[in-house]
Description:
By secondary structure, the protein is mainly beta. The protein has one domain (3-72): CATH 2.40.50.140. The protein is built from one helix and six strands; from the N terminus they run ββββαββ. Strands 2-3-4-6-5 form a five-stranded mixed barrel.
Amino acid sequence: MSNQDKEGKIILNGIVIESLPDTHFRVQLEDGAVLLAYMSGKMKYNRIRIYVGDKVEIELDSYGGKPKLIRRK
């Protein structure tokens, strides 16, 4: 399910399938696509841990920027 914020950011839901070094994660979206996403700064600052199998929200920039993990569900 995707939503579009007023800032032109797209929010997608997915599941973490692999944890990689340097706070990067491989995430499978609901539609089956696989993305390489990085953890947002607020999640790093608050030391929120992400594990394989966690449901997460990903923010995509409409201009083609890197996918960013913004919330663990």
